[in-house]
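Structure request: Cobalamin biosynthesis protein CobD, Denitratisoma oestradiolicum.
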Amino acid sequence: MNSGLLLLAALGAVMLDRWLGEPRQWHPLVGFGRLAGAIEARWRVENAIPRHGQILGLSAWLLAVVPLSLLALALCRLPWGLGWLASCLCLYFSLGARSLEQHVLAVIHPLEVGDLTTARVSLGRIVSRDTAVLDAEGVTRAALETTLENGNDAVFGALFWFALLGGPGAVLFRLANTLDAMWGYKSPRYRNFGWAAARLDDALNWLPARLTALTYALLGNTTQAISCWRHQAHSWDSPNAGPVMASGAGSLGLILGGTASYQGVGEQRPLLGAGRSPIARDLHRGLGLVRKGLTVWLTMGIMAWFASQLI
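Returned structure:
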């Protein structure tokens, strides 16, 4: 597919995501989640030795991801415009910009009227940490962290791989990211089986995460964002979430990180960013970074295409 058609497919997918959001029924990723659950039930062995568990996890990852990525490749090569439509739909199903916005707004609105209970419940739908005991600042901080991180996972990462490999690239990235969210934990259950899912997602996300961090930096306090990225990101447990959140927090002039509880176990995480603690209206600013960044990426894609036509 030539660059012009690829750009049109990207614009079409972004507009579909903006207008329709994620399908409420028959979403391919829901079906993929069920498939991944069935594969895990078949391939994960309790109390396997570490190396054996890692090999089983890698085999399960390949079984879940490779056939569907090859199917996407075949569909995107169909003739008579069907390949273009398939490419557009592959990216549409891989994007989650509107879904991210809807989930974060469901936290913002109760926070703004002092309904902390509802805000905690809404937050619990989009984060893995314990939310029942969080105060308003803790809810806000957690929601802003997931906004910045998912800006990369649900928007910019998919766009990057679509630009590089078309529809199959977006599908590969999204499936890998989904498996990381399902299997990529350091708990006893997934420490070995999920090792491949976590490492492969890290590899696929390495460059998109840094481009996302650069995007956030350019859209706010650039000097502070880059400084936070350089000096704080390495202290974060995730090699990709660290740059994204440090840059985003620095760009907004806010402090993220700190204590969080996962499955009843408290974890002291490094602080990211600079400035003050976030409040509810800062979540709108976080969403603004993602929306503006998406506009920047699409604008740069359009400009690059026009420039290529002049050469």
